[in-house]
Specification:
Mean pLDDT: 85
Largest sheet: none
Order of helices and strands: HHHHHH
Low-confidence stretches: none
Oligomer: single chain
Strand content: under 5%
Radius of gyration: 12 Å
Shape: globular
């Protein structure tokens, strides 16, 4: 069930550029579950890779904090995913 939800989230992220989605992903990065944090780091990386820069610039401070939190995450895979896009500045 969780993998189906993750596939649905990826589909939504790839086909919808809504700033509200960024806020939801960033909020989910503070979950107690390492699997959720890892999935949200992956989702955040997908957003950064696919969405237009003009859209991302509007949420730059929020994205920066989210990536910094991802780098300091307890899960090594979440940290690795967050490190890919640290050079947002």
């Amino acid at each position: 069930m969780a993998s189906s939800a993750l596939v649905a989230v990826r589909f939504i992220i790839e086909n919808t550029c809504s700033l509200r989605l960024i806020s939801l992903v960033v909020k989910s990065l503070s979950s107690k579950s390492k699997d959720i944090r890892r999935a949200m780091c992956e989702t955040l990386c997908t957003i950064i890779a696919l969405w237009p820069v003009t859209t991302l610039e509007k949420k730059h401070p929020e994205l920066r904090v989210a990536l910094q939190n991802g780098i300091g995450d307890a899960d090594p895979e979440a940290r690795q995913l967050a490190r890919k896009y640290v050079c947002l500045e």
